[in-house]
Design goal:
The protein has 382 residues and is of the alpha/beta class. Helix content is 46%, strand content 15%. The strands form three sheets. A seven-stranded mixed β-sheet has the order 2-8-7-6-5-3-4, with helices on both faces. The chain has a four-stranded antiparallel β-sheet with strand order 9-10-13-12. Strand 5, helix 8 and strand 6 form a beta-alpha-beta unit. It is globular, with a radius of gyration of 24 Å. The structure holds ligand TLP. Ligand TLP binds next to helix 4.
Length: 382
């Protein structure tokens, strides 16, 4: 903006104030920079996604008439080598619909003791499917056929029979650990010999695929249903997919409606989902490298217990050796612009994603190290 009518001196002063203001704002912005490591669910849609959302062709998806949703469903089915797919608002809904289609009320669902369906899905397996979750503890969080075989209850008059086996890959609360192809193949063979169906909570299955260098078809072969999230590492603002046989997905569509998940002109969301599906996997390796950077910095920090071998993807879970102090540390980190999640009295989770750069992770690692070491010195983390 010019300053017509002002003498040269006044104009120079105005320019000076404007520049002062700009550098002040830049300082404030850099001070206010938040590195959000609470979850990979926090990413904002890219400009490309926003443009695609604005331009999306839409229709009423409850009538099956949204062309963009239909395209996303076809593409997801193709990537996973399945007959059909269903776009659902959340991973939770995808998991719970799958469980509903694969079980009968009164059965048990075998899952690892830290599984998302057990800890974070509001007991919906009990409410919606009428099933109990049989929690099986696996050291390191990865269920193998050996663990599962011991927990199977056959049909009979004394105990609830096993109706389903659920696997989470990557295993969130095990620090994003990966079930490898051999572990999965044994589970598929074992389940098939017991005629038990399998559901895969693959909220972060693309992270597993990148970590293993495996294709999606090989990694999910033998699972009756697979849920994966577009809204986590892949970077879409909203949405998850369920894939499986055409017949099962037709039933899943009915259950989605029953749960209130018929989203009508959902093509605006599916448009971002399509970009997430095609482009998202390509950059997950960066998230994994950033998680490793954080983990290695923590491994060299007094007062921290961390198993570096557990950091295989984009999640870092560490413990405070003192056995307490996670909530206080999260508060102190927040004051320094780093957001982390406390999972219990001494455990903290950090999750890397598209909206945190390597530089952000270097800054976060510095804040973490300083705050933890200060806590140890002040005796609050001893
Ligand atoms: N996980 C969230 C929280 O709910 C813990 C997160 O921040 O990690 N399966 C797995 C393995 C998940 O981690 C999540 C979300 C879901 C299912 C559910 O997805 P949404 O949040 O879309 O319902």
């Amino acid at each position: 903006m010019d300053f017509p009518g002002l003498d040269v001196f006044t104009e120079r002063r105005c320019r000076h104030f404007r520049e002062e203001e700009r550098s002040h704002r830049e300082r404030i912005n850099s001070l206010a920079k938040i590195v959000d490591l609470r979850s990979d669910t926090v990413t904002k849609p890219t400009l490309e996604m926003r443009a695609a959302m604005a331009a999306a062709e839409v229709g009423d998806d409850v009538y099956g008439e949204d062309p963009t949703v239909n395209l996303l469903e076809r593409r997801a089915a193709e990537v996973f080598g399945r007959e059909a797919a269903l776009f659902v608002p959340t991973g939770t809904m995808g998991n719970q619909i799958a469980i509903r289609t694969l079980t009968q009320p009164g059965q048990e669902v075998i899952a690892e003791s830290r599984a998302h369906i057990l800890d974070f899905e509001m007991a919906t397996t009990a409410v919606f499917s009428g099933c109990l979750i049989r929690a099986v503890r696996a050291e390191g969080g990865i269920l193998t056929w050996k663990h599962i075989a011991q927990a199977i209850t056959p049909y009979g008059a004394f105990r609830a029979a096993t109706g389903l086996i659920e696997i989470e890959n990557t295993a969130n609360l095990a620090g994003g650990r990966v079930s490898d192809l051999q572990v999965l193949e044994e589970i598929v063979a074992g389940a098939s010999s017991h005629k038990l169906p399998l559901h895969l909570d693959g909220a972060r299955i693309f992270n597993a695929a990148v970590a293993l260098g495996a294709g999606m078809k090989a990694l999910t072969r033998g699972f009756d249903t697979v849920m994966f999230c577009l809204s986590k590492g892949l970077g879409a603002p909203v949405g998850s997919m369920l894939v499986g046989s055409a017949e099962r997905m037709a039933r899943a569509r009915v259950f989605r409606k029953a749960l209130g998940g018929g989203m009508r002109q959902a093509g605006v969301l599916a448009a971002a989902g399509l970009i997430a599906l095609e482009e998202g996997p390509k950059r997950l390796q960066d998230d994994h490298a950033n998680a490793r950077l954080l983990a290695e910095a923590l491994a060299h920090t007094e007062g921290v217990t961390i198993d570096l071998t557990s950091v295989e993807t984009n999640i870092v879970i560490f413990r405070l050796t003192a056995g307490k102090g996670a909530a206080g540390l999260v508060t102190r980190l927040k004051a320094r612009g780093v957001l982390a999640g406390a999972f219990g009295p001494d455990a903290i989770r950090l999750v890397t994603h598209r909206d945190v750069s390597r530089g952000d992770c270097i800054d976060a690692a510095e804040a973490l190290t300083e705050e933890i070491e200060a806590g140890v010195k002040a005796n609050s983390l001893r």
